[in-house]
Amino acid sequence: MPIKTILLIANIVLSVLIVIFILLQGRGAGLGGAWGGGGETFQTRRGVEVVVLRAAVVCIVLFFIISIVLLLI
Fold it and tell me: Which residues of 9-27 are buried (b: 16+ CB within 10 A; e: fewer)?
């Protein structure tokens, strides 16, 4: 299998993971946070929220790097 195909598959998998991680982060805020409500208290991320955030950041960085590599190939 050519390297370009492998990178394309990796990009697709990473994009799905990014969507999942972002949706998991949005669960805590709910729809009220989207319209300006629910922001009365400041909460720090703890436990699983930190892991999901870091995993999302890693996936986004990898997606960006792979996309640039695919552009240059």
Answer: eebeebeebbeebeeeeee
Q: How many domains does the chain have?
A: 1
Residue 51 lies in a domain: yes
Ordered per-residue pLDDT tens for the chain, 73 residues: 899 999 999 999 999 999 999 998 875 554 445 555 555 555 666 778 888 999 999 999 999 999 999 999 8
- The pTM score is 0.72
Question: In which domain, by residue range, is 8 found?
Answer: 3-25+43-72
**CA dist., res. 36 & res. 50, Å (int):** 23
Q: What is d(CA 16, CA 42) in angstroms, rounded to the nearest whole number?
A: 30
C-alpha span between 43 and 20 (Å, rounded) = 22
